[in-house]
Amino acid sequence: MVRGRISRLSVCDVRFPTSLGGHGSDAMHTDPDYSAAYVIIETDAEDGLKGYGITFTLGKGTEVVVCAVNALAQHVLNKDLRDIVGDFRGFYRQLTSDGQLRWIGPEKGVVHLATAAVLNALWDLWAKQEGKPLWKLLVDMDPKTLLSCIDFRYITDVLTEEEAYEILQKGRVGNREREAQMLAHGYPAYTTSCAWLGYSDDTLKQLCSKALKDGWTRFKVKVGADLQDDIRRCRLIRDMIGPEKTLMMDANQRWDVPEAVEWMSRLAEFKPLWIEEPTSPDDILGHATISKALAPLGIGVATGEQCHNRVIFKQLLQANALQFLQIDSCRLGSVNENLSVLLMAQKFGIPVCPHAGGVGLCELVQHLIIFDYIAVSASLKNRMCEYVDHLHEHFKYPVIIKKASYMPPKDAGYSTEMKEESVKKHRFPDGEVWKKLLAGQEN
Ligand SMILES: [Mg+2]
Questions:
Q1: 27 CA distance to ligand 1 middle (Å)
Q2: Which one of the listed residues 132, 222, 287, 394 is annotated catalytic?
Q3: Are 326 and 300 in contact (CB under 8 A)?
Q4: Using CB atoms within 10 A as the burial measure, which of 139, 218, 282, 332 is most buried?
Q5: What is the pTM of this model?
Q6: By C-alpha distance, which of 146, 131, 106, 81 is closest to 368?
Q7: What value does the mean pLDDT take over residues 223-245?
Q8: What letter would DSSP give residue 350?
Q9: What's the CA-to-centroid distance between 98 and ligand 1, angstroms?
């Protein structure tokens, strides 16, 4: 039973100095310090349970997200959790429609990242109070309640609530079997850990052969900074993994539209399944042009990790601008908005392959994609979830990967809670790790 009035919301800036090792580096983000705005929500209920929520950032700028979370707090404090989840659509709309704050969005940018962190904490708390992992809370929810969490505003021209209900009703056929299958075998994953742009060829080789030994069959390589360099690195990785295994490429928005087509025509010999974020994430028609041009080469377009909201996803789907849709658990307005995108993707028959990595993105998004398989898509064809082997040790309930698959979490909640000592050490700027690093910079 859902219970408690929200008595406290706190937020802090947690950063990991990943830039020191080149981890996470790509053609556009050369020195990311993987970070999170970390929200903790407490209630006056006697159970003492807390909700934890994050949104992912790259270091600088986290303090701006923290400010936005504080600005949103007034909508959450003193609310009864029952009232929030009893009308989650209404609450989502209240949060995203604040008459003054929406001017710095609406439903995009910093204020939307902050919305995600707050709502992620509420979903974590709800699932914990129900004693279920989030994916199971969603799987067990009756379709009407599930749909009452979604704001259908701006998407009813492609998906009405009635159509969404039909999709969920259809998804109930065989769902018990699919749940058992997930519990036994997990959800298929691919790895991005081997081929960050800042890694040397030796590191790449070393990581790739270890990944092969660990049973990985799907790999992603970062491209886009230098063509000759890309050709060398893609050849190296394709030679190592062999012709049968799956290779994806990710340009992280580096190119103009014609450049993307030209560059990928040169990399086509390495048989990538997709090119991810070939150009600006806002360029819907540009993605459509690239998709059309690369289709004869057998290369699809994937995008979504910096897609603002459900409206942009709607248009990407309408324009045939992507062949793989990449939801992100911390960019969109939490579970609420991601549910609407999963349902739209299902309507258009486009496979969802979530974006993950960063801080905690794997921990969160696994819940959404496992739910998607059990209750919405019922298919694993051309579907896999990104995996990056970083920073899991800072989470209380880290992901479990077996045979290159995500095993469904069993602990109650949204797997968002970080270890207290990790937060203490990595708080910016006063945690022990940062105090040392910042003092070093001054010298
Ligand atoms: Mg990417």
A1: 10
A2: 222
A3: no
A4: 332
A5: 0.97
A6: 146
A7: 96
A8: P
A9: 31
